[in-house]
Fold each of these.
Amino acid sequence: MNPNWNHIVREHLAVLRLPPEREIEIVEELALHLEAAYEAALAAGLSEAEAEARAMRGYDWRLLECELSRAERPSAARVLQPPLEMIERRGGLRMGSLLQDLRFGARMLLKGPGFTLIAVITLALGIGANTAIFSLIDAVLLKLLPVKDPAQLVALSKTARDGENRIAFSYPLFQDLRERNQVFSGILAYSGVALNLSGNGQTERVAGQLVSGNFFSVLGVQPLLGRVFTDDDNKSPGAHPVTILSHSFWQRRFAGNPNVVGETVRLNGYPFTIVGVAPHGFFGVEVGAAPDLWAPMMMQPQVSGLADRLQMRNNFWVNLMARLKSGVSAQQSQAGADALYRQINRDAPGLSPKLRDFLLGQHIQLRPAGQGLSGLRNQFKQPLLVLMGAVGLVLLIACANIANLLLARATARQKEIAVRLALGAGRARLVAQLLTESFLLSFLGGLFGLLFAFWGVDFLLSFLSQARFTLELQPDLRVLGFNLGVAVLTGILFGLAPALQATRPNLIEALKNEIPTLTGAGGGFELRKLLVVAQVALSLLLLIGAGLFIRTLQNLNGIDLGFRADKVLLLSMNPGLNGYSPERIKSFYAQLLEGVDRLPGVQTASFADMPLMGGAWVDGIEVEGYKAAAGQDMSVSAKKVGPKFFETMGIPLLKGRDFNVHDEAGAPKVAVINETLARDFFGNDNPLGRRIGVGEKPEREIIGVIKDTKYRDLKKQAPRTVYVPLAQPTATSAELTLHVRTMGKPTNLVDAIRREVESLDKNLPVYNVRTFTDLVAQSIYQERLIAMLSSFFGLLALLLASLGLYGVMAYLVARRMREIGIRLALGAQTSDVLKLVVRQGMGLALVGIGLGVVAALALTRVLGNLLYGVSPTDLLTFVSIPLTLTGVALLACYIPARRATKVDPLTALRHE
Amino acid sequence: MLDNEVKRGSTEMLILALVEDRPRHGYEIAKLIEERSDGVLQFHPASLYPLLYRMEKRGLIKGTWIEKAGQRRRRYYKLMPEGKKALNEQRQTWSDFFAALDRVAKINPA
């Protein structure tokens, strides 16, 4: 019996949902074909089964479905794959066509080198900026620590009754927690320490970290060379002079010497043996604070130059991190650790009742620490997200620009495309071809963008390092993945619309090379106008953001610091780390000051425990005869300074006298206070001669009042500040910063001053050498960074948007050449033509500007606390930026408009 | 070895040529191409009909159901004036092309 061909065919075509009468026809026709083939095979002597197989052999049902669904769709003019197949080539089409597309795409890009160059550079900037900011966001906000199971790590802190969250614990408490807890599989301690490292003749200051013996094993970090610490390395105080180097320090200082294990280095003058090198990428547990080396906690008295804190329960200096036991929830662990913490504090010997009470009021808190701990994160989260938004906008504008260029090119290629369509190329095939070109562009952009990103990251890191953050940033797969993802997305974004548009031309018109004239446009052109409007709106948004940041920076730069920051050089040193006695420290500094004072070019010089804007200690003040109200804030900032400090810094003395060499350790205690402090505690009374105490009895006589100066944060009011002589009440601090006011350029004196230090001790590192201007600039590096980057991106956006506008207008003028010619021939003035063109362009620009202003009004409030002294809806910015943009847009329209007026009516009329 | 581009351009011409002297049905067209090319050119049946439908939509050919005595009805395709024009143009192009090939590379298309 013959197979039921109708049934077989109908089954296969069901998915197409053709109109019923059409389906009947097609089914009948195909069934007839199959039947004919079947009968021919039977006639040739084949069995029924063989004949059926023969008839079906040629049928590729999927291909048929595919082809039919295309052929039957309402719009015509599509012909698909070559229906004629060489028998031996069957199936080899797809891969071949991709390669063909790539080759063809590359040829087309090479044919328009100018276009390709502009597109690739635009994309490289856009994608590169996104990649650079992303790699920072990744490192600071997203990435997990490079340790085993980072999700199990928690950081310990304690919340006190006063609501403050503290992260420092005493070492004995750590030991108790470690021995007695049931909820952690491990708990580790670490604490940062600054070290003078000497060896083979060079001394330098390095960042060290003291860690518990189980530090590396709890984190699950294996050494690259040698070994990591064990508990045996941290058994008794001073007994384990061993150290592990970080990978980058090993590279930098030891040039990656593979035989470094076993070598000896001196840390603060104490010999340590290098036992290992940490693996590449491991930077400890704090993002932004990569130590150069680690040493056991038990070496604290030897390296810190401070008292032995290992036994002190009232000295809080170690940070704790723990690994949760599997199967124990974070809540259970927190409850367990808290109960144990209070138990330990109840039992602990030798605590004063006041301290015990204070400690018993605290509760342990566990925070997830898989991403490490970081001050960097809090500080940079908002700026980074704002910048990410900005570079995202830039990329969008870049995409709009390239889409625009591609649309213009598509118009130029309309005939080519129409011919190919007519010759039987499928639309999908052509879209694939055009998209291949877009992807080629976006991948090239991505590739060069990666280069830009590397430079960008280097630049950002150098900025961060000014702010004392050390970030280990290596390009990794995540960043490459992001880069690739952005490139692909970009390719689709700017390529798809033009490709779809281009393959939908009116065949007949295109083939006849007829370009619509008086109507001006066509669908593709509407899209281009829309893109220009979007570009203008987005760039206005960016520029307004940049404007607000620039105003912020201006405001900060214009702040009265209260001192003269120019021509002051700062240098820090710490002879205490080289094992000097207090007497020797004192005479060292005295000799140094004498030497520096004698140097030509030095006006005055003085010392302070910390630079004016570099910090201060905070303590409670007691004022003789002043009764503090309940709950009154009695905290003040305090600084130790040498004689002539106020003169050196150019701080005006309002009353009384400066310190002098007689304000010695044994002499009567004296203090100089600032205006704010005088006002807060003495009102209109004369504070001179009154007595105060800072964390001490009120026995210190006020001998002077100075003008307020900024402290650390330029945005904040000056805090109450007390200045005391370096040597009072106890000996001179070991670490001091030399402040030198120079007559010429401060940096010219660096070498001479270094030589002075070397003449006294050639093994004493001088560090933090900088001018005061730099220090002030550093204090607002975040604002400078944002203002600089946002202006850069804003200007880039402006450039792209005006190029886009120019391109569209130039194109428009070219298309309307004939019309313009007719107008001129009929007596139109050039000014009319000028107006005609400019009006059309400015219409687009003004719509974009309007939209941009609305968007900016809605969005700038997220910038809120990144701004200073300027409101998010600052009138000046919201007026000047749109005006500027209008001016630029006018120029972008004027150039093509002028060209239009130069049209010779006769030529234009002949123009096709 | 025939290039895709060449095949692509030639398919429609072959069909137009086959229906030039008289209307034919699909199976006949496929068979004729295969036979006359000694099996070098083979139609994918799955491509043939969609192509015929498209050519019909473009007005190059026209299909009509014709019932003959003692047979099931079949759909015959005949050449339309548009198709005739296209065929002539393509013939001219190919003939010029082959002539050029022959002059350059001594290829005799016949």
Amino acid sequence: MQSTSETFGDLRKDFPVLNRRVRDDKKLVYFDNAATTQKPNQVIDAITDYYQNHNSNIHRAVHALAEESTEAFEQTRDKVAKFLNIEDSREIVFVRGTTEAINLIAYAWGRDNVKEGDIIVTTEYEHHSNIVPWQLLTQEKKAQLKYIDIDDNGELMIEQLDDYLSTGKVKLVTFSHMSNVLGTISPVKEIISKCKNAGVLTLIDGAQSVPHMKINLNELGCDFYAFSAHKMLGPTGVGVLWARKEILEKMSPFLGGGDMIREVHKYETTWNDLPYKFEAGTPNIADVIGFAKAIEYLEKIGMDNIRKHELELTRYALEKMKQIPGITLYGTKEPEKRGGVVSFNFNDVHPHDVGTIIDKDGVAIRSGHHCAQVLMEKLNVAATNRASFYIYNTKEEIDVLISSLENVAKVFKL
Amino acid sequence: MSGDPIYTEMIIEYSRNPSNYGKIDDAHIHRHDSNPLCGDSIDLYLNIDGNKISDVKFDGKGCAICMACSSVLTEMIKGKTLDEVKKFEKDELLSELGLEHLIKTSPVRIKCALLSLKTLKYGIYSYFVDKMKDSESAGNLNEEAANLY
């Protein structure tokens, strides 16, 4: 593996795509990291190496390639466990992504544990992937889906949780660690402690948090945690579901098929041990192995340094953007309470027009509803622009965004 | 940014002051449609007198391209017969605003440009089939709308 430079500026050389020119030979400014991050050579090379030298199915055959592949695959599981400070790596289930992890819980845990009249609590700033699976479940079970609303500052109105919990009907509280639109970091410890006191399980969507801050699942005390590799330098098609062993053991399987079984007879089957009970079929072996390199890369920089770097960029961006007349910023004004995500609107220019115009300057942001239409309704907007930062972004790039926004003003004669 | 191929004076002007913007109460044809990925969302209202479109309005939320194309479409079809409107091609609409290039250059933004036309085609189809019980006149509009982009 190549050595990773300690300084943030230098590590850009590890990301080939960042050298790209786009549109009219403009330097790429990639600010769509909340959607997916770019991949360093270390990850790309590991995947190529796997296919060139080791490719084989895992967990079954006894030949050399199968042993190598199995070992590399399982080492990634151990690495993920260590990264999150989990003692038992059998609690790590590989899935396709956060969406699949949440669906797995809604299906395998939800179907056995949620009955008519029960309540599932979610929040107004969830991604569709933490709303729709619960709509499906509660509709099927005649249960209820309730929302913790957000206040004008984009923070959860946590007192509503007390009201829900006091009904005694809540089975699960499911929420994102960090909002993908507002960047708000949820009061995770407070929510978990309230739920624990009420004997209610908690599921955290960590898609936007694990890539950007140190997560210690051993200390956190939630019951389920889900995130995606591709938002943290890893490949697409790999996600992680973590749950306590006691819960996973009691849960019914999600998908049936190869690898998840112990013995199959004509009319009955016994399940494999954890985590394989939840990993039916040939998994995404190459990308899981590539994911290990992404974790190594992040560990080398240090998650606390990453958080610090993003906080600095966010503070800088918020400061600069506040000075542009006609900018509406969404989410909490306190940078410490948010991640490296800045959502905004510019006068009444539709975000797609903003996105198209600044794309000409090579600036890649996301315009749209960010798979959070419930939140868009709350904010009473059709869409927002979102710039989201990662380890390789710089203040100079934020300056490019700011001056590009001036072009939007010119085109729309603002 | 002079000579911008998308954000021409005309498009900016229409997006600021859309034509035929509003609602028709109890319209003969009312159709809602949206682009799920970008969130453009419009309602199209048509009144039919004899075989002619006597009035047309639209409202909704969308980007400048969507607003401009919806405006121009409503201007172009007002007073036309249903048969004329049935044959309306996407090129006619796009060329009116100089946006033909979007078909090749922007598979994403072409959806913004053609949402109103798609809504129109679905709307007229339903009018023939549901209200007039005349699926022959409806022709292939349903299929055309589905394959517009």
Amino acid sequence: MLEVKSINVYHGDLQALWDVSLFVNERELVSLIGANGAGKTTIVETISGLLTPRAGSVTLDGVRLDQMPTHKVVKMGICLAPEEKGIFTGMTVLENLELGAFVPESRRIRNGTFQFVYDLFPVLEERKKQTAGTLSGGEQQMLAIGRALMSKPKLLLLDEPSLGLAPIIVKSIFGVIKQINETGVGVLLVEQNVAAALGLANRAYIVENGRIAGSGDAKGLLDDEKIRDAYLGTG
Amino acid sequence: MIELVAQTFVNGINIGALYGLVAVGLSLTFGVMKILNIAHGEFLMVGGYFGFWLFTLLGLDPLYGLPLVAVAVFLLGAGFYKLVFSGLARLHEETKVKNSLLVGFGLFLIFPQISRMLWTSDEQAITPAYSGGSFPILGVRCGYVPLCALVMAVVIILGLHLLLTKTYFGKSIRGTTENWKSAKLMGINVERTYLITFALGTALAGIAGVLVAMTQTISPDIGMSWTLKALIVVVLAGIGSVGGAFFAGIILGVVEAVSAIFIGPYTVALGLVIFLLILMFRPQGLFGKA
């Protein structure tokens, strides 16, 4: 479904990604793991059109995305729930979700999508009149994911959904991510929490210093000695 | 004495509503794009002259001319956004504010010159037959035209408020104001939102220009003083609240008018004193969040 082919991406004059290639099949849950600053966020920002690669290509079902502005990429069916959540804190929960369905195609079917999101996160329905900034960190993350789902994406990009949250909340959010994936939405999950991400994903890519340093079956990686040494500290 | 104060109070509300209208446009542009358009008052001046033209050349009543002027200044604003401001949108936040000041100063130098060529330096006003009329309430005289301008301003502000809170487009403006990156990720065409918001802001200034031309006079040089008034009101209100900016405009209008009884011509400085005091003691403004 999604194919990223040898992209080079720069922040200004600084190269951030070298020859990065990856793919996500339909209905697959793929994880990008790696240390802070390795370039994971840059990868998902490039896929969503916030950054434009200087070389290489990004395609979804054969359609080139890499020269498209972000709002067109969303129309194609890719939505990113960004790092640090990026919710509209001064607007209500309901308004945040409404903006999630901004694209006309998603706007038309938003009533059904609202139900879908409220079923996944009942707390959002309880708090829909509340200003988003007054939600707890976990609830804000749920809102960020719910808002991204409102566009009815084929592929959901999640950037560090566990960031700064208590372990018990992380567990429940990861549960919902699995549920979302089981409804047929492809997921590309960026995580520093390597053990949890590998436990959830079908496949994973390891990102190191702006390059893909390895990839494979999530279960296989979880058992790999090198990975265990480098990321899980359980050598 | 009481009647004098009451009369002044009413006059203050009338002029304050115009301050509010001008300030709302400036606040909208600054909030969404983080650019400070100090040529905002120039669009007011041009709008006033457009209304004047419609009235003197075509004999069109200024109130019927208002929508036409709004559309014309909207297009003018959109054109200037494309021409000189859109390049700024991509810049880093701090550079953006500085460069927008330079661009605004440039327009501030150009606009009065052009309007001097088109309309001479003379003071002009739009004076329909009913312009001198007034009626008394409790010993206070209410002019038809100022009252009409007040009602217009209130209606426009309410309309803007409804646009921002009830429509998808308005919500996309608010979303872009808060976080443009997230707005993009929602599928909002942020560049287009910038263009329309900027044009909307200038159109509000243009409408105010017609109301100014009806209630007082216009000349090619009034732009900067209206920009200053709008700035004071925006600082007084705090960024981001349409109702707040309008209300702060009325406060400034009333304070200026009433104080004029006691301190005469120094009342203009009073606005600047308020500006400084607010920046020192309540930088988020009266209605802004800390």
Amino acid sequence: MLRRRGSMQHKRLARSKSIVQHKQDAATFDVQAFLESAGAARKVVSYSASAVVFSQGDPCDTVMYVQRGSIKLSVLSHAGKEAVVAVLGPGDFFGEGALAEQPVRIGTAKAMTDSTVLVIDKHEMIRVLNEQHTFSNRFIAYMLARNIRVEADLVDQLFNSSEKRLARTLLLLARYGKEGGTQRVLPKVSQETLAEMVGTTRSRVNFFMNKFKKLGFIDYDGHITVHTSLLSVVLHD
Amino acid sequence: MVSRSLPTVTRTALLDLKPFPRVKFRRAEIIFSPGDACDCVMYIQCGGVKVSGVSDSGREAVVAVLGPGDFLGEGCLAGEPRRMRRATAVARSTLVVVARDEMLPLLRRAPVSRRLLAHVLARHATMEQALIDQLLRIMLHN
């Protein structure tokens, strides 16, 4: 408690410093500490599995950072069909549309597992992005990586069959090729959610999951284990 | 002063990019193709560029149309070793070419880094919307 009060005083002091000292702060600004803790205009919120973080149409005035857990971003069509746009994990940002002047949320964010999220007020986020180079470069690096992924998702949607798209989705969920190695056992994902991510029906997902299982590419009994041999589906025509 | 929005400052970004070479492209000229080395970032000074995915069978699908003030090929900053897409000039265009290693010090300067941030955010918003449209279209047919 005492320590927190100390750090708040430090922050108030920092705000009244001259430009030269500001530059010094930029060099020492601790991005990780900012993202791991609550503070002025940012708070840590816990969500239990399947709780809604924000809904399509809500005002868009905060940016979120996933500290722990997993968050599903989805949109609902007029016909009531749901499409999953992204599944995010620790270290990911979401709701960044607020920075691109989106007036309302274009999709719904839901916790898939118990999750902790840092909710940053839009104006505070803009202030830190403008003032702290280390932070804005970290955020740009994140957005660059995220854009590569969204672009790949888009190209995948435009070109590939639903079987290939399902295989790719499973490999990505298993974090195949990411640092820290492949996490082969997937977090619990229903066939329904997989269908919404791939853009197909649950029965098609069921059909391909059984096919992948028969070919030994995955193990599937309640939870899903992905083997690297599943790559062959993505790589071959 | 605390600004209330993210400034885009295209003109000051251009000032910082002044020392770098300009390359001109004719309409329909290919700027890069999938598999090319990914060692520079380009900034569109004037003209327009379309970015498209190319399938194994040679089909092409446009994922972005970029204009003045946009960056092109910024994936190399995220460590992409090769170009993944095809970039084609859709009009007579002038591009500022900055080698990857020379871009990193520029990002420590506010104008370029703010312009890049505004660009990646806008690019994310349009691609996300395209992805949503595509997903919902497919699901409508199922």
